[in-house]
Amino acid sequence: MKKWMTALMVAVMTAFFANTAYAAGWVLNQTGWWFATKDDGSAWLSDGWYWLDGNEDGIAECYYFDAEGYMLANTLTPDGYTVDADGAWTEMGQKQARPASEVPSYIEEEPQEEEPAGRVVDPTKPMVALTFDDGPYAKVGNQIMDCLAKYDAKVTFFVVGDRCASYQTEMKRMADEGHEIATHTYEHKYLDKLDAAQIREQIDKGVEAIVKYSGVTPALVRLPGGRKNDTVLANVAYPMIQWNIDTRDWETKNTEKTVRAVLDNVKDGDIVLMHELYASTGDAVEQIVPELIARGYQLVTVSEMAQARGVQLQAGQLYYSFRP
Ligand code: NI
């Protein structure tokens, strides 16, 4: 028995008595040696010759495993070659060996869990959730997303359901680039003017449109105009995301005023309301985003911010900010 085999046997027996899983590689049991190709021992080499680097000298040798997977030793193999006491192929007294570097690996790597796409929100650092309502609208939406992409910034788009079919490419881009897509209802009707069934229909159809055109299932609702009453609160089965910084960009349609509304007021945990429909808003984003990044803010989606702040969003509840 070679030194490496003795050492391995000790390791295997230790593992056995500790009742722990063995690693892929040589394994000894009561019947003999076998070679596990998976860490859990659920697959092994069998029925033929395999080059294995079992040797501490870096030389690989050829071993024969029978139909059940046990290494043959001190015998003839089915194809008429002899194997020595250590199981290695010998012919005319010469051991068949080759450099270990030429030997394939038979060990199957366990598939690694995919890391999420490299984006990490640091809950200890300040963050802001920019939100854009009333889209999709490709002209402004793409301008916003072009800017966000430069800074690895993510935002939330609250889209109107009956617009989604017209902007399918933009919807897919939102999803592909990791922005949050949430519903701003199907037709942007003020829900406080509707009855319970109409409210539910506006929400359900708004959700369906997002699923259909982006593949994403939205988790959040923004109420048109932020308008609500008891019927609304009782019939919207999603967290309702309000805001605490209102840029009034729809009213001013002024880039500088929109920029100032954010930069003069913003604090850690804020939810900023903007609209995807105005060129002035797209231009404002190109100033707001680099400045917020320069101030040390992470630009995150609403769901990311809630999670980072340890808030479990509840259906039927209103949220205005996640200030610490
Ligand atoms: Ni709106």
CATH domain fold name of the largest domain? TIM Barrel
Poorly predicted runs of 5 or more residues: none
Instruction: Give the ordered list of helices and strands.
Output: HEEEEEEEEEEHEHEHHEEHHEHEHE
Query: What is the strand content?
Result: 15-25%
Shape: elongated
Largest sheet: 6 strands, parallel
Question: Rg from C-alpha positions?
Answer: 32 Å
CATH architecture of the largest domain: Alpha-Beta Barrel
How many structurally independent domains? 2
**Helicity, in percent?**
25-40%
Total DSSP E strands: 17
CATH class of the largest domain: Alpha Beta
CA-to-CA gap between the ends?
67 Å
Your description of this structure?
The chain is of the alpha/beta class and 324 residues long. The protein has two domains: 3-102, left handed beta-beta-3-solenoid (Ribbon); 127-319, Alpha-Beta Barrel (TIM Barrel), CATH 3.20.20. 30% of the residues lie in helices and 19% in strands. The chain has helices at residues 3-17, 138-150, 168-176, 196-214, 230-235, 249-252, 255-263, 279-294, 302-308, and strands spanning 25-28, 33-36, 48-52, 59-65, 75-76, 82-83, 89-91, 94-95, 97-99, 127-133, 156-159, 180-183, 240-241, 245-246, 270-275, 298-299, 318-319. The longest helix is centred in the middle third of the chain and has 19 residues, at 196-214. It starts with a helix and ends in a 5-residue tail after the last strand. The structure holds nickel (II) ion (NI). Nickel (II) ion (NI) binds at residues 133-134, 184, 188, 224. Residues 133-134, 184, 188, 224 line the site of nickel (II) ion.
